[in-house]
Design brief:
This protein has 355 residues and is α+β, with helices and mostly antiparallel strands. Helix content is 23%, strand content 26%. A hairpin with a 2-residue loop joins strand 7 (170-171) and strand 8 (174-175). The chain has eight helices and 14 strands. The protein has one domain (19-346): L-amino peptidase D-ALA esterase/amidase (4-Layer Sandwich).
């Protein structure tokens, strides 16, 4: 059965309406680019880089952002300065664990190449581990891969599954990777959007749920084998949330925390060896660093409840889109991560009236 998005299978989790592209690029100005690296010689590589532009002029006009660590066995660079200042000042990169430092440095080098005028740059780069399917010690990601992902970023519909930083990732012992989704919130006479992009690389099979249905128990490892030997709970997930709601840094931080709700709905528990790191940014308030005073807006506190729901629902569906889009992959050491079988998923969901 052809790989597709979750809703193409007739499965529609959540209650809020989705955005027109049902992705993080539903937020005006947000662009996503990929560099996917696949090789069998001289090393087995199944890896890549995902780049997210909050806006192309983010260097000159930063925006408010917030960060949350649900479980901290992972890395998201620049988090200390983000927590201190509350401003996102550069594009974001997501890659594999052993390349996170290189990705961080590459953003700085890209800024220098483009002549960005800034006293310093402390970029955000995040990671999840792809060493089951890719030779992590080959250190195959280069600065040129990061530059390519940044240069090729675009708005509109984006690829999911085995692309960019998600190329070698595993989710609930199926093939995982990159996924995205969005939600629309009506607050009075104003409409806001919240989009999520995930790099999903976590979880054990039996905990997987799709729209509340225990799919991981129904499609167990006796039917679709696990790529991990020995089996273990672990891995990581990076969630990037974007919104056009006018949020202050503390509100962005609160929004980022709600990614944990969407993760839990799918079956993530924040295991001890998992790096579950979330970042949320708002495109609504743009700051002029040279101005003595910046006028900003703030969404009403009660509006946050619907935005929290939107963040949770978008995160949930983004993870599931990563699973339904990803294709079976064989990689390092002959390990194979099998794709979630879509016909079986539909069969299980019909049994519970969800498809």
């Amino acid at each position: 059965m052809r790989r597709c998005r979750l809703r193409d299978l007739g499965i529609s989790p959540g209650r809020l309406p989705r955005g027109p592209k049902n992705g993080i690029t539903d937020i005006a100005g947000v662009e996503v680019g990929y560099a996917t690296v696949m090789a069998d010689r001289p090393q087995v590589v199944r890896s890549g880089v995902t780049a997210i532009w909050p806006a192309r002029d983010v260097w000159q006009r930063p925006m408010f952002a917030g960060f949350h660590s649900f479980n901290g066995n992972g890395e998201l660079t620049g988090a200390h300065w983000l927590a201190e200042q509350g401003l996102l000042t550069a594009p974001i990169a997501i890659t594999n664990t052993h390349s996170v430092g290189l990705a961080r440095d590459a953003i700085g080098a890209y800024a220098a190449r483009k002549g960005v005028a800034s006293a310093w740059i402390l970029p955000v780069a995040a990671e999840t581990y792809d060493g089951t399917l890719s030779d992590a010690e080959s250190l195959s990601i280069t600065m040129e891969h990061v530059f390519a992902a940044l240069d090729e970023a675009k708005g509109g519909p984006i690829a999911e599954g085995n692309v960019g930083g998600g190329t070698g990732m595993i989710c609930h012992e199926f093939k995982g990777g990159t996924g995205t989704a969005s939600r629309v919130v009506e607050s009075g006479d104003v409409t806001y959007r919240v989009g999520a992009l995930v790099q999903a690389n976590y979880g054990v099979r039996e905990l997987l749920r799709v729209d509340g249905v225990r799919v991981g128990e129904a499609i167990g490892i006796d039917e679709v084998p696990s790529p991990r030997r020995p089996r273990q709970e672990g891995g990581s997930i990076i969630v990037i949330l974007a919104t056009d709601a006018p949020l202050l840094p503390i509100q962005c931080q609160r929004l980022a925390r709600r990614a944990a709700t969407g993760l839990a709905w799918v079956g993530g528990i924040g295991a001890n060896s998992s790096g579950d790191l979330f970042l949320a940014f708002s495109t609504a308030n743009r700051i002029d660093p040279a101005a003595a005073v910046s006028d900003v807006r703030m969404a009403a506190p009660d509006t946050m409840t619907l935005l929290f729901q939107a963040a949770a629902e978008a995160t949930e569906e983004a993870i599931l889109n990563a699973l339904t889009a990803a294709e079976t992959m064989t990689g390092f050491g002959g390990n194979t991560a099998h794709a979630l079988p879509l016909d079986r998923l539909q069969e299980v969901m019909r049994r519970y009236g969800r498809c």
